[in-house]
Design a protein that fits this description.
With 296 residues, the protein is mainly beta. The chain has two helices and 17 strands.
Length: 296
């Protein structure tokens, strides 16, 4: 079987139909620094924990000071009183714990057999070739990590015929500060770049930090997923997060003329793909709809 990752993933990434291939891009299982060089996602800035055990536990591990992240490889469910998805901090390369530590999940890469395939209306998509349990890590949305100015420049240079792969993640901290992460897998990326949007997705995105404050945009199973099922997530990030506000609904309606149609086919389909108008405005007017919201 052809491996789209070229052997760079722990599990081969399939491609269908045979004899066809998506437009050329450079495969990378991990985030890389963007052309602007503003952010280096490979830099190690976090100190490691001093746990001398094979697996870290809450209350004794500094990486788990916010609570347990995983239970049997599954992401711990968000508490009912939590309105946002919470960020996750995994043990890192500076930690004393072993590689089998239960707080090392996303950093291990793909664990399920996935296949990039040609869809009827949505271009290329991704489906799983095996069953995936709710809460399991599926894949990362990896690519070039950009600064705001470079992300805005690339967005504004696109034409209506171009596919947009750039994702903007805004984490709303308790202090009121907003942390932004822009990832573009157009030229350098992984299997996550082929995931399609759905208004009723089976994946959801969580920022997972390992070696630094630059997050890995990890996608987890929102429900039990059957073999052969297409994988999708909500490009707006509102799935498992706060509902849309009236102000943002008005903004979206005004921007419908610029948005692309949605072909997810779900019962609650919004007819258009999510839209982030802030990347088309000036830096001082960055108040459009936030595509992904998280708390920390």
């Amino acid at each position: 079987m052809a491996d789209l990752s070229g052997g760079q993933e722990p599990v081969a990434v399939g491609l269908w139909p045979h004899g066809e291939a998506p437009p050329a891009f450079q495969y990378s299982p991990d985030n890389v620094a963007g052309a602007d060089g503003d952010i280096d996602p490979t830099e190690i800035t976090f100190p490691g924990c001093s746990c001398l055990t094979s697996s870290c536990v809450v209350h004794t591990c500094s990486c788990l000071c916010r609570g347990e992240n995983y239970n049997s490889l599954c992401l711990r469910p968000t508490e009912k009183e939590e309105e946002y998805a919470r960020p996750v901090f995994e043990c890192n390369s500076m930690c004393q714990c072993g590689e089998s530590c239960q707080n090392r999940v996303v950093q291990r890469g793909l664990q399920f057999r996935l296949e990039v395939f040609k869809t009827e209306k949505k271009g290329w998509g991704v489906r799983t070739l095996e069953c995936i349990a709710k809460g399991r890590f599926v894949c990362e949305y990896g690519g070039e990590v950009l600064g705001f100015n470079e992300a805005r420049r690339r967005i504004q240079a696109q034409t209506s015929k171009d596919s947009n792969y750039i994702i903007a993640v805004r984490e709303h901290l308790h202090s009121g500060r907003i942390m932004e992460t822009f990832v573009d897998p157009t030229y350098i990326g992984n299997v996550g770049r082929f995931l399609n949007h759905s208004c009723e997705p089976n994946l959801f995105m969580v920022p997972v930090r390992v070696d630094s404050m630059v997050p890995k945009l990890a996608l987890f199973a929102a429900t039990d997923i059957s073999a052969g099922e297409e994988l999708s997530y909500d490009y707006s990030g509102r799935f498992h997060n706060l509902p849309i506000t009236n102000r943002e609904q008005k903004s979206l309606e005004e921007d419908n003329r610029l948005r692309k149609p949605c072909y997810c086919g779900s019962r609650t389909c919004a007819s258009f793909l999510p839209w982030d108008s802030s990347l088309f405005s000036t830096p001082d007017a960055c108040s459009g709809s936030s595509p992904l919201l998280f708390s920390s």
